[in-house]
Design the sequence.
């Protein structure tokens, strides 16, 4: 067995043991009757269940393989019986290898697979109106891909320029596997193309930043009301026109981190406040998570969730119909299809590379 597989088995034993401990806690009357204790335990068990179920099945296969080998090595066994055992052994070995590969995948990706809701933010950077138009194109790309996955998209806040591009747009996406697919999108996205506003046909380079955040629940992080300043003002609509004359725009400031959130898209102050708290909770959660990751992973490297907005992660070259992801040196010559939402090959390349890194880190 390779060093990596030995490490995986050791990790799986720890997870199996942890799952058994959680099951014991659930049988405790003081836990099962206390909602605050019960919810975190059932949530943790939900994350571990698939891995533990497969690992227990894997151990069962190992026992069956040993039983077949014992028959084959027994000189007193009937020849016909040995032949059957040999056939069984071949099928069991194949099943074991396939299951172990599935276990390794779920082991390193299960936390991400458990995140069923994210918040994405796209902001136009260098390039003025052209950057805003590309921010709109990126938004459309993510929406088309989400529709194919049958995920639910909610537009939370946006501001546009006169050409219909997005200066910024904030939206949430809910659905199974959403973080596994979109967790790699955080960072700088660069576009090279002839802008609609260009009269001489010259290729311009513009930049857009994307942030992808797992949507934090109140269970994940408690925001102390004393740590939050709230400001209410009149909302300005897309392009600057008045939405209404009510004080509906909400701005929240988290004092300990300095993180601020603005929400003005809805006419209802109540709805804007609720959206602002969702975004603030997710940003603050990600802030503290990134600090923990930095401490934990000084000698390690994983890709997902670590997209620094200043880091250039991808270039979209329209004249060459090419997308290049600089983190994995992957170039695909089907930019037109990718922008229409056919992101499968791009995402698959990132997932495979990230799995490899995570297995090495075990």
Sequence:
């Amino acid at each position: 067995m390779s060093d990596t597989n030995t490490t995986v088995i050791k990790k799986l034993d720890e997870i199996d043991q942890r799952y058994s401990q959680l099951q014991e806690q659930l049988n405790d009357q003081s836990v099962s009757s206390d909602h605050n204790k019960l919810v975190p335990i059932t949530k943790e068990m939900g994350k571990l269940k698939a891995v533990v179920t497969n690992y227990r099945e894997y151990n069962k296969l190992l026992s069956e393989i040993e039983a077949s080998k014992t028959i084959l090595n027994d000189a007193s066994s009937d020849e016909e019986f040995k032949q059957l055992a040999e056939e069984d052994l071949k099928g069991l070995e194949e099943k074991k290898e396939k299951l172990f590969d599935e276990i390794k995948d779920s082991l390193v990706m299960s936390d991400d697979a458990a995140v069923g809701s994210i918040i994405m933010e796209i902001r136009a950077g260098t390039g003025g109106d052209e950057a805003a138009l590309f921010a709109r194109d990126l938004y459309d790309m993510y929406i088309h891909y989400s529709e194919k996955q049958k995920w639910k998209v909610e537009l939370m806040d946006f501001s546009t320029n006169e050409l219909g591009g997005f200066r910024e747009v904030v939206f949430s996406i809910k659905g199974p596997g959403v973080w596994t697919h979109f967790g790699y999108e955080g960072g700088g996205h660069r576009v090279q193309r002839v802008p609609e506003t260009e009269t001489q046909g010259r290729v311009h380079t513009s930049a857009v930043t994307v942030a992808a955040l797992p949507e934090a629940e109140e269970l994940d992080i408690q925001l102390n009301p004393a740590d939050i300043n709230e400001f209410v003002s009149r909302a300005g609509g897309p392009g600057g026109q008045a939405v209404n004359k009510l004080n509906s725009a909400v701005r929240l400031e988290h004092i300990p981190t300095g993180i601020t959130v603005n929400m003005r898209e809805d006419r209802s102050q109540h709805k804007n406040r609720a959206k602002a708290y969702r975004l603030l909770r997710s940003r603050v959660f990600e802030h503290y998570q990134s600090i923990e990751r930095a401490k934990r992973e000084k000698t390690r490297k994983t890709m997902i969730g670590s997209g620094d907005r200043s880091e250039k992660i991808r270039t979209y070259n329209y004249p060459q119909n090419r997308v290049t992801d600089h983190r994995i040196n992957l170039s695909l010559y089907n930019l037109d299809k990718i922008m229409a939402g056919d992101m499968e090959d791009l995402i698959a390349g990132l997932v495979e590379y990230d799995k490899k890194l995570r297995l090495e880190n075990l």
